[in-house]
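Troubleshooting log. The previous run stalled partway through. Resubmitting the same two chains, unchanged.
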Amino acid sequence: MAYEFVLAETDGPIGIVTINRPAVLNALNPGTIAELTEALEAFDADDAIGCMILTGSERAFAAGADITQMVDAGPVEVLRDDNFSRWARLRALHKPLIAAVSGYALGGGCELALMCDLIVASESAQFGQPEVKLGIIPGAGGTQRWARVAGRTAAMEIVLTGDPVSAVEAQRLGIVNRVVPVGAHLDEARRLARTIASRPPLAVRLAKEAVNQAQETSLSAGLELERKLFYLLFASEDKREGMRAFLEKRPARFQGR
Amino acid sequence: MTESTLVVEPSGGVLSLRMNRPQALNAMNGAMLLALRRAFESASRDREVRAVVLTGEGRAFSSGGDVKEMAERAQAGDADLGADLRQHYLPMVRAIRACPKPVIAALNGTAAGAGLSLALACDLRIAADDARLSVAFVRIGLVPDAGGLFFLTRLCGFGKAMELALTGDTVDAAQALAIGLVNAVVPGGQLMAAALERARAFSAGPAETYALIKRGLERALSLDLEQALEMEAQLQTLAGRTADHREAVRAFVDKRQPAFGLKTQS
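Second attempt completed without errors. Output:
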């Protein structure tokens, strides 16, 4: 499948989607969002893939939305286009998605990274929501995800000042899992992806679902869901294989069943 | 138009920067700070530059901030020195520390206050035997800045840093060498030759490896052992892929000197 704005490739059980608009620092136009969603959905549906990576270039993961396309827009046009609604499809992905971020992850680019399940960042990465400087606010989940992941206090500073934070600071705030030297972020994301892809797919899928529910429901409903999913996995062949292999001190061979 | 406050001389792979306000002992004014920042930013990008030497014209390396100007502003009561630092000094310090190429300070004379901080921000310091170093700030009722506190503690330890910062005493080149404030001391007449020789050696070396080492050391300052071990592994993956590494191991096996920085055929 050939795309105009992204590259899609596989590395064993890992599906890698690279935003590829270097001339505009990977600014996110609707076409790019549509293509990366499509590419990720294709990997999500592919049984050979166990984990996915979304990345950009060394200079920019994604430097926000294309301002040139918004400068003359009015509310009716923005509403009718409703670009952000397409982003919701990323939330429906079953397989873990890792953002490998280097350089700018600003505005929509930062929100895109926050939609991923894990973030590996290079030391040069910058995370921020500069929308306020343009007279608007984040519109693809920035206010909500920063508040949920980093907390209200940090979120306020990020969205009210519009100033970016470094990778190390982002890790301290809890939105980044790992910070690595510039140039090593994709390697590290692959390493993490290989580990996840080696785990039994059903357990990974339900684990992701359970964690995501932690931010959607009350504790008692979340605990209830977790327990149901836990019981459900006892019906899987992979559970039997995983436990047997553990007792027999041998590596497990998971089938995804 | 006044004489340039910073003389910039590229020669081979070495970029020489000479602070040029000798009549003011190379006190740093706004123009010089900006020139330094720009010079390091462009040296970082310029592939032709493989090492940088920073020195001063005349008797001093640099006597630091402009105290006369400070006195006027202190009398007027409108000084926000922190704001000045953020605007003028910090971008310069960051530009030096972000430079991926080896940076050598050739201390030709007095390095005091922010002038010393500037020297400490460089990667290596070679001092003339008659150079004199002083943290100085306390003598005008100020706190060491422009990285002074940071670099002092890391270069000569907490105890010595405390002594130097609290007293503002001047140390000579030999003492500076003994406490780790400088890397080498040479006779005054040989300073530039020694600094340039070292810089030329760097310019013939593995540039990408230097950049990785600098990045790694910078980061190692804030990591624990486990994190540092992992970071080293990540950096080594990158180093192992460089043309310079391939050339170096090939040269080792062939028992010849490696030729770094050349386009190696793949």
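Takeaways: The CA atoms of residues 44 and 95 of chain A lie 6 Å apart. Chain A touches chain B at residues 123, 168, 180-184, 187-188 (CB under 8 Å).
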